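User: My advisor, Dr. K., asked me to get a structural model of this assembly before our group meeting. I'm new to this, so sorry if the format is off. These are the inputs:
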Amino acid sequence: MASICFYFQLHQPYRLRHFTIFDRTPDYFDEAANRTILRRVADRCYLPTNALIHELIRRHGGRFRVAFSLTGVLLDQLARHAPEVITAFQRLAETGAVEFLAETYYHSLAFLYSREEFTAQVRQHTDRIRTLFGQTPRVFRNTELIYNNTLARAAADLGFQAVLCEGADHLLGYRAPTYLYTPPGLTGIKLLLKNYRLSDDIAFRFSDRTWAEWPLTSAKFARWVQQVNGNGYVVNLFMDYETFGEHQGAQTGIFDFLRHLPEEVFRLGADDFRTPRECITAYPASGEYDVPHMISWADTERDLSAWLGNAMQSNALHELYRLEPLVLQRGDPDLLEDWRRLQSSDHFYYMSTKHLADGAVHQYFNPYESPYDAFINFMNVLDHLRGRLGAAQRSA
Amino acid sequence: MRIFMLGWEFPPFISGGLGTACFGLTRGLDRLGAQVLFVLPRPVADAASHVRILSPASPTAAGPAEHPFGRSAAEFRQARFVALATTLQPYLRPVPQGGEAAASGGRTRTGGVRGVGQAAPAPGARSAVPGPTLGGGDHYSGDLFAEIERYANLACVLATHEEFDVVHAHDWMTYLAGMAVAAESGRPLVVHVHSTEFDRSGLHVNQRIYDIERAGMHAATRVICVSHLTRNIVLRHYGVAPEKVDVVYNAIDDDGPPEGSALPPITRDEKIVLFLGRITMQKGPEYFLAAAKRVLEVMDNVRFVMAGSGDMTRRMIELAAELGIGHKVLFTGFLRGNDVRRVFQMADLYVMPSVSEPFGIAPLEALSNDVPVLISKQSGVAEVLRHALKVDFWDIDEMANKIVAVLRHPPLQATLRDHGGFEVRRFSWVDAAANCLKVYETALAAAR
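Assistant: The format is fine. Below is the predicted structure of the whole assembly, which you can bring to the meeting.
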């Protein structure tokens, strides 16, 4: 018996509008672009995939089960521009076959810069999930699966029972990501490791016609999962929800793949679907997964270099978090909200120069022509926000 | 491969990027083992003989200081250089006031020449020659077209004594010669478009020059453009068949600083933003000043340096005064050699606000001098340079916005400089020459 553990990530940042040094009004976010992108993703991915998952749960009597993590900034934007998506998720929650995970409300890198801010955002997110979907998250995923031993401890301190992270080869060695692990010296919390090969077969390679396994059918994938039996308990398929209908367009057959996957899995008889919380209840931890340095699920490096790879990114993040005491001291909710929206990791991802070399990476809805433009725009907004705080404008 | 190459500029006699490009390309070809015979018009003031072959084996009698190919001898193995006695000075644009050299935004002034049809001025008095005004095609020297024909005739005579595989002509001045030599020898013609009449003259196109450009492009077996920007102009405005037009980007050779040229460090409190190039309409100097005005509205300790000369210099000095920023703008006049390196060393940012720039080698030079660059999107180099800030030349606020960002945020400047300095090493003249060789092969295959 092996379990497929699906977790889908949903997030859209508040993208900044073009903001120059000459702009004077605290109007930082590109309302029109954000609404347009949200509508597009809702229509192409969120709504059709939710409907399909709902149908699969019904058809298989609740034996098809999945987990979602929705960021707070996405939920806020959905509430304004596509409330029917939230309704659809509420219906999914009512099936009892769906688990919602916890993360930072603003999809931030706060854990790296401010533990207080990190905790505040996780609490804010948990409250929102509880309010909207009537369940309290017990499993935590940090932004972009950024993780190390210290994060596991912080999650345990916040009462979580499990953390999702990347199953990195250099850390696993000969071991498989199909087992559950614990952080070194911590027994009360389990780790579920992303099976990046099988996850990426769906998320990245599904429509790649140069791939030897193309076309990937549900039956073939179910056989691959079955091969895990005898060498582990879980196949953790962690991916962006936009895989369905956006990264892999409907014409690639991705929806048919998902539609038939449960029946193919059940046909083979050995396997099932479980959510993260069900996995940690059903299966024991088999060893320690020691992660002294930060890892993530990004790029081939699986590290922080997508957000902290150059001097601009580091500078922008430091300058942003340097404002924390001032923002909190002011107690202005608008200011606090603006400051927190600026924390979304996307703003720093747009500043990455490491993808320029090969030009190959697909930067999803990146509003900038270059990482330099991203930095300049962000710093102009930050300068303006600093001005509102009454702090002296940084002298040139 | 033996190339009969027709040009009209070569260091140190250059007025812009063309001479620099011809030098780099010829050296690249030389290193790849191609045999280049480079044919140049020779300034009339220089000497008397019709044809002089200059090569390492047969050095010229002219003194080394004035020697047009003095630096070539040691740097070329195969190439030979020929100077024909014509007086071509197509882009001589006399300055309407004294005290300045003729336009020569590249590196060095054109020495000892005069415009055809004008009275020979006394030495050093050239800048006093009254010049035509900007606009129209009339800033070209008067009897230029006769000189072009003479150049073509002389090149044909020369060609009858030479063995070569292809004819390669650089820009419109040499197209007549290229067509004549190709017809005479039966060798395929490749024309190389470094700029078009539309770049140089905006909407005031000189019809005769346009006709020559068009004839050259249509007669050529292959056309090489320095960017896709230029290629599009060639396709759209000259009606050239797309399948015979290739793009070969310009490059820069990093030879390192010359020996014994270490400059003392410069300490200062001010930030410096640099414009370096010909001060002409094509280069967008007024947009630079307008952006400077906006920058100075939000920060104070910055100075704007305009290095170069050209027919808009005086107008720009007046404009700076009108904008009330005269005390913040420094006009250096034309710089050369160590002065260029020194001004780069002082600069925090190099700005190229060109209205129309077929390629633009200067940003590559800035990057190789560790200066980050802000370049106009209306430039060919913007197609290939990733680690540069880019802006529409007319977007003054955005230009100012980006200038301020570089001056205020050292990490931005450092990232641009580090990545840009690395990226610029990818632009090699040997690679450009290799691409030209491929074009020759295609031309030869088509001619068979």
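One thing worth pointing out at the meeting: Chain A has two domains: 3-288, 305-388.

User: Perfect, thanks a lot.
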